[in-house]
Amino acid sequence: MPSPDRISQTLTSHELRQTPVRRAVLQVLLDSSYALSGHEIEERIGADTDRITLYRTLKTFEDSGLIHRVVDTSDIVRYASCSIECSAHEHFDNHVHFKCTNCHHIYCLNQVAIPAVTLPAKFEAKTRDYLLAGVCRECTP
Amino acid sequence: MPSPDRISQTLTSHELRQTPVRRAVLQVLLDSSYALSGHEIEERIGADTDRITLYRTLKTFEDSGLIHRVVDTSDIVRYASCSIECSAHEHFDNHVHFKCTNCHHIYCLNQVAIPAVTLPAKFEAKTRDYLLAGVCRECTP
DNA sequence: TTATTTATGCAACAATATTGCATAATCAAG
DNA sequence: CTTGATTATGCAATATTGTTGCATAAATAA
Ligand SMILES: [Mn+2]
Ligand SMILES: [Mn+2]
Ligand SMILES: [Zn+2]
Ligand SMILES: [Zn+2]
Fold first, then answer.
1. How many CB pairs under 8 A join A and B?
2. Cβ contacts (< 8 Å) between B114 and chain A: which residues?
3. So where does Zn(2+) get bound (chains A, B) (predicted)?
4. pTM of the model
5. Total domains present in chain B
6. Residues of A annotated as binding site for Zn(2+)?
7. Is residue B141 part of a domain?
8. B84 in a domain, yes or no?
9. Do the domain assignments include residue A66?
């Protein structure tokens, strides 16, 4: 669990203003061991925050390199905190994601790099997303 | 462009009833060189079809192994036609997808297999999705 | 042709997301 | 600490995407 100082420092280093909503959202995402949907974040930060503000906060964080989207086979967008070196200029999240079909959590496997592929001519890749689905560590007997 | 016979045969071989909506949706997906969202399919088959029927048709097709979902970094679900060997029993779509940041189309790169990764202990993967983003063949100068 | 099964369309609803605008909060300057 | 410029927030209204129940129409099998 990161200290309040850590939260403030992170906001400052990404040139973002300190606000209660931003601190709460960032805290929630840093505390979670798996990616969270907008709804799940909403639940965790309490019902007194406007959903619109939350969406705008998530967009700001994503643009600033604080969090990254986690693709899902469903139509729900999830977010997870980024590695320390991500910035507004560029994201460096080259890890695979794992979705458990039992507990439905999506984990960032930060230690597993996305392997490169050879593309057909004239296709030039800039970013990659790799999502595995199966049974996670917690749900394996 | 597949002939009407091809469409009918495909429906029959997957044990699905012949209906105008199903033929239209399948035709549209087979004709497209990239994955389509529900809205895009709706536009192509004409406004006289109910959106609810379209969603149910897409679900039926997915369950029957006629089409597969294409994950996107956005919150929109897209569909593309499956390879010939997919069935209600199992899908065999092991190819990567490529999203163009210029034209926004998502292509099935059927010739590029998804590379395997080594997972941490007690993670057991059943399915994989690999999405690249960059500039596609059509948009490369 | 008739009977059975299944797909469709409508209504109503739910969940997720976006925009404009007035107000409140943040932060930098003095 | 106070002031003023800038930016975030909250509300209202709206858009988009997807779902469920149910009566009717259509497709297939007998
Ligand atoms: Mn991640
Ligand atoms: Mn595909
Ligand atoms: Zn699990
Ligand atoms: Zn393109």
1. 128
2. 117, 130
3. 100, 103, 136, 139
4. 0.90
5. 1
6. 100, 103, 136, 139
7. no
8. yes
9. yes
